[in-house]
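Researcher: Next sequence.
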Amino acid sequence: MSNFTKTRSIEAISELGKQLINPGEQLLAVINDERQFNAWFTPESVLNAVKAIGKMLNREDLASWLVRYDVDYNRTSKKVGLILAGNIPLVGFHDVLCVLITGNHALIKASSQDARLIKRVLEMLADIEPEFKGRYSFVERLEGFDAIIATGSNNTSRYFEYYFGKVPNIIRKNRNSVAVLTGNETAEQLHELGHDIFDYYGLGCRNVSKVLVPKGYLFNFFFESIEAYQSIINHHKYNNNYDYNKSIYLVNSDKHFDNGFLLLKEDERLASPLAVLYYEYYEDIESVQNLLDRESDNIQCIVSNAPLQVKPQLVDFGMSQQPALWDYADGVDTMAFLVGL
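Model: Next structure:
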């Protein structure tokens, strides 16, 4: 990319952002077809993800993000193998973007769950700026790589570490997100929290799977505030999960709350099953702080307006699925890793 510049890449990527916010016919066709390959990828859900990335790729944010790194487009590019997750639409796009924008070559092993959309988006980028055309390849098998960024479960991460441990790598495991409520939230804030819980049906690591609430907290107001998300129960796979978990709780006489589309159960664990939100009571903010510190390696982000000092990203209500360019997964600076290769 010797004749390439930071300015040109910002221009091209911000133009892509505009096209994602207002998708054209070809992209809309891919968006609407996705549910044929993955029942969770409804047109509304996929459009949501596409527009969230579009918003992320604005010129101002791209410039203030890139100014932090010394990207040398004249150096020999490295081949970076990417193993992408497929739990929510375009979930691996940020990793691909980081590889391309640092002048490296992306060897992309896409998830079968989410292979078509990312191909289309990268074709759009290459149409805007042909310099990107030869900078990525989709592969079935990763070979000849200089570094690896792999996203998977706690189980696959052990396999990744075994196979890729000898090259520079970022290997990501399971994480979940939590919300900390104080009891002083407004109806609007709790409604926004509904996005953090229900967007993408709760399948993302940035989705809230657990809430921490003060002792004596009553959930009536919370349930009233999220009533607008009731239609989620009409999705057959979500409904199956809801029915399954509800029947288990009833058979086992497990105490739980139920509003007809979400089950609330008291549990110390972070990762709740689909259609279930775990909750845990706390005595004071100090005990919350201690719990979050202990679990920081398992938490992706925290939704709250409580006065917390935490390592994972602290985000406002409704913003967990609207990350900025510098909100790195697992708090690992992907750009610094790539620039340093």
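Model: The first strand starts at residue 79 and ends at 83. The first helix runs from residue 6 to 21.
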